[in-house]
Amino acid sequence: MQKALFGPSESLAVTVYTDGGCDPNPGPGGWAAVVQHGTSQVVLSGNASHTTNNQMELEAAVAALAYLGGRYETCQIDLHTDSQYLRQGITSWIDGWFARGWRSKSGQPIKNQELWRRLYDLSQAHEISWVWVKGHAGNPMNERVDRLATEARRSLTQQGASEVGRSEANLDKEGETTLWIAVSCRGSSGPGGWAVVFGGKEHRVLEGHEAQTTGNALYLTAAIAGLKAIRSSTDVVVRAASDYLVQGGGRWVQGWQQRGWQTKGGKPVKNQAQWKELLQAMEPHRVRWQAIKGASPSPDLAEARRLAAEQLANILS
């Protein structure tokens, strides 16, 4: 996207801020660049459904230089990044890679070679100072591109969720087992009920309740029970009105596992034992996750919601 354009008569001194990332890594990702000259500004952003943090950092820098290269023969650029991979690569490593035919000192092909080649070619026309800035340290422009990159990444999920809400009845794939999950919990922490309805030809239900629990824990309990109840390895789609379950099962859990069950902020993951059990329950299957937003036309979800509410009523009676 673009917010403003530079005029061809303006001077060539330019400031650029870039950022990129994905969640989990690898996984869905977004990148952003802000190109500034005086009071003029161009905002560029994009995303990819399966990528890495490093690739997104490179994409942001490539996009900024490609934008400038399409308008000016040469620029004096101060390019700011919080990625040491990008800064060290372009200032210290890339000449050696180029001399060795894009191979490391040990003779291995360079990772992300196509992006590095393009960045190298684009940078030749300009005088560039590659400035490292500490991320999340209060630099307003660094914070801004971080926010823009995050918004670009999240737009992938938002588009998917909107699609589910519009055409839910047509999303089943042939041979796929569908689990419709609903919970009903009293307060943020208290008694609650859960239910799983198996959609398709094999219509069956699972349900239960807990005397002391949370809505998030109940969603995990239901998903684990549903996946474990499937008798043989198959394709499974799990549908629920819980971003916590859908995002966690589809994106976050692998990153938590890689970090030793720590969040990105270094805190222990909540409901850790259940997330570990969910990973084990997922292992025999090919699982995809879909968030159900708002009212649903599905009778299976309506049934799951009714059963979960009945389970809560049972424990309260």
Average pLDDT: 84
Whole-number radius of gyration?
A: 24 Å
Number of strands: 10
Major sheet details:
5 strands, mixed
Distance between the termini: 56 Å
CATH topology of the largest domain: Nucleotidyltransferase, domain 5
Helix content: 40-55%
Shape: elongated
Unreliable segments (pLDDT under 50, ≥5 consecutive)?
Answer: 1-11, 159-172
Portion of residues in beta strands equals 25-35%
Order of helices and strands: EEEHEHHEHEEEHEHHEH
Order of strands across the widest beta sheet? 3-2-1-4-5
Helix count, per DSSP? 8
Task: Name the CATH superfamily assignment of the largest domain.
Answer: Ribonuclease H-like superfamily/Ribonuclease H
Attribute tags:
5-stranded mixed β-sheet; alpha/beta; Nucleotidyltransferase, domain 5; 317 residues
Describe the overall structure.
The protein is α/β, with parallel strands linked by helices. The chain has two domains: 13-160, Ribonuclease H-like superfamily/Ribonuclease H (Nucleotidyltransferase, domain 5, 2-Layer Sandwich), CATH 3.30.420; 171-316, Nucleotidyltransferase, domain 5, CATH 3.30.420.10. 41% of the residues lie in helices and 27% in strands. The protein is built from eight helices and ten strands. It has helices at residues 53-69, 84-99, 113-123, 140-167, 215-228, 243-258, 272-282, 299-316; strands at 13-22, 27-37, 40-51, 76-81, 127-132, 177-185, 190-199, 204-213, 235-240, 286-291. The strands form two sheets. It has a five-stranded mixed β-sheet with strand order 3-2-1-4-5. Strands 8-7-6-9-10 form a five-stranded mixed β-sheet, sandwiched between helices. Helix 1 runs parallel beside helix 3 (113-123). The relative contact order is 0.12.
